[in-house]
Write a structure and sequence with these properties.
It comes from Hungatella effluvii. This protein has 19 helices and no strands. It is mostly helical and about 475 residues long. Helix 4 packs antiparallel against helix 5, helix 9 (about 185-215) packs antiparallel against helix 10 and helix 9 (about 185-215) crosses helix 19 (about 430-455).
Length: about 475
């Protein structure tokens, strides 16, 4: 089940909210836990057992780590943390990477291995990182163990952020799991955020994604340089509005029920450098790798050579977190190399450049990176790069290119404008009753248009389901 579906909007969500608010406060975590399991199991009920197993594993490990720390048995506590990490990464490895690893070993050795062919459980990359960080944080004394397994289950399986994040560390919402305030102001804010996210997903991501699909399907002989650049612009906008839209909807749903989830996107396409971009894009994932990989490895505290190693490891892991394919690994290393280049060479030069030049530099390399990300078939990706560069005598434009550009120019302009803070700045110029009325009208229009699009939609993908 996805948020941008009529089933979710008109069946699951209304029933869930009615039951949730009708229940006494002490039972609401139980309602949330059960409702989240129904949400998760709607498309693939077999993987509810995997989610429950992860919940049980880290609930038990968290209690054990805390007990051993209290008793001064730190070695046993470390073993429990290691056990939790091994089990979590083992599950992720089996379901997400087994086929890729076996195929790779087979190519290198010439041997043939039977492939498990297991379907990737939705959201496993997100909830695995959440449950794993819970045990680690208890060991670090940054969180106390949850004694109520229903409350812990509600945290792990919470449907607003289960399938696509943001990655919420336990201590961020521990207090709200125990006691939270649900009120009209929070609910209204949640509805507004949800409407914004739904509009991003349905009205922009789906529409501009159809343009990317159309362009990527054009035969090689009919492609042009301008068409290729327009295509990767469309893909970059699709993945941004798709993922940030889901993050907004998650924050909105959480706010309706009294939770405050961390921000996951902060206008990344306004970044002035690659470093700045990764402070704005998928913030909770970058923070997770910083807290649980980069800093424990030594961060920047042990000299330049160790820092280079640590950055390379983090970005290799960031790449393969997104998918079990070579293009994701190379995409991660590509950004790791750019970040190292900025840190050790380019930083003083970038600081002296005009803001527009820095933005152009950052976005050029970000969108070139999307070519890698978009093509699991490396040969197709390499061909796309050469066509963007005009190699092989490919024309700059054609009648078909100009037709695609003119007919989609309003959509591309809306996407570019919507990826900046400008719409929000304009809205904040209103105040009081005028602003409240404008927001109410905005929510109503977005919801009506989104539902209209969904009724007639045959194209409603979600790119991060496969991650």
């Amino acid at each position: 089940m996805v948020f941008s579906s009529l089933l979710f909007l008109f069946r699951f969500l209304p029933v869930m909210l009615i039951v949730y608010f009708a229940a006494p406060k002490r039972f609401r975590n139980g309602v949330l836990f059960l409702g989240s399991l129904i949400f998760y199991g709607w498309g693939e009920p077999v993987y509810i057992t995997l989610l429950l197993f992860s919940t049980l594993v880290d609930y038990v490990h968290g209690r054990l780590v805390w007990r051993f720390m209290e008793e001064g048995k730190e070695k046993r506590a470390r073993l429990c943390v290691a056990s939790s990490v091994i089990i979590n990464l083992g599950l992720l490895g089996v379901f997400k990477y087994a086929d890729f690893l076996l195929e790779t070993v087979g190519r290198l050795t010439g041997l043939s291995f039977p492939l498990p062919g297991l379907a990737l459980p939705i959201g496993i990359s997100f909830y695995t990182f959440q449950t794993m960080s819970y045990t680690i944080d208890i060991y670090r004394k940054e969180a106390s163990p949850q004694k109520n397994i229903i409350d812990f289950g509600a945290y792990v399986s919470m449907f607003p952020q289960l399938i696509a994040g943001p990655i919420v560390r336990y201590h961020t919402i521990a207090e709200e799991l125990r006691e939270r305030t649900e009120n009209f102001a929070g609910f209204s804010r949640g509805v507004f955020l949800f409407a914004v996210g739904l509009g991003k997903k349905v009205l922009i991501a789906n529409t501009i994604g159809a343009l990317w699909t159309q362009i990527s399907g054009v035969p090689d002989g009919e492609r042009t340089v301008l068409m290729m650049w327009m295509g990767i612009l469309a893909f970059g906008m699709q993945i941004y509005f798709d993922f940030s839209g889901y993050s907004d909807m998650a924050m909105g749903l959480g706010a309706m029920m009294g939770f405050h989830f961390p921000e996951n996107f902060r206008y990344p396409y306004t970044a002035k450098s690659i470093t700045d971009f990764w402070r704005r894009w998928h913030i909770t994932l970058s923070t997770w790798f910083k807290e649980y990989v980069y800093i424990p490895l030594g961060g920047n505290r042990k000299g330049a050579a160790v820092q280079v190693r640590n950055i390379a490891i983090v970005w290799l892991l960031t790449g393969i977190w997104h998918g079990a394919a070579w293009n994701y690994l190379l995409w991660g290393l590509y950004f790791g190399a750019l970040l190292l280049l900025e840190k050790f060479i380019l930083k003083p030069y970038l600081e002296k450049m005009p803001s527009a030049v820095r933005s152009a530099y950052a976005m050029t390399f970000v969108f070139l990176g999307w070519v890698l990300f978009a093509h699991e078939n490396m040969a197709e990706g390499l061909l796309y790069f050469t066509q963007m560069a005009g190699a092989g005598g490919i024309a700059f434009a054609s009648r078909r290119t100009w037709y695609l550009l003119v007919t989609n120019l309003p959509l591309l302009a809306a996407a570019v404008l919507g990826s900046t803070p400008l719409p929000g700045i304009l809205c904040r110029k209103f105040s009081g009753r005028v602003r409240e009325t404008a927001e109410l009208l905005f929510v109503a229009v977005i919801l009506v248009l989104s539902v209209a699009f969904l009724v007639d939609a045959s194209y409603n993908p979600f790119l991060y389901f496969r991650f």
